[in-house]
Design goal:
434 Repressor (Amino-terminal Domain), mainly alpha, globular, 80 residues, single chain
């Protein structure tokens, strides 16, 4: 592939992991609860909150968890 071809490929914007975690916290979930659901330490979730990027499997699991808790996040935003 040349540079022009690559520029035509659709790219998704990067996931803002701190925003994902903040939304879950705003809905009432603690870092400990998020970590427990994912099988990682709360300190690991805290590093993602500070800007580190989770590995592929952890990121995939975090996004899946986000889908499960999305109704609570929507409700929390409506109440606030």
């Amino acid at each position: 592939m040349n540079a022009r071809t690559l520029s035509l490929i659709h790219r998704e914007p990067p996931i803002r992991w701190p925003n994902v975690i903040q939304a879950m916290q705003d809905a009432g979930f603690s870092l400990r609860q998020i970590g427990g659901a994912l099988g990682v330490a709360h300190s690991t979730v805290q590093t993602w909150q500070r800007g580190s990027v989770p590995n592929y499997e952890d990121g995939k699991a975090l996004l899946a968890l986000m889908e499960i808790v999305r109704p609570y996040i929507t409700q929390a935003v409506r109440i606030a």
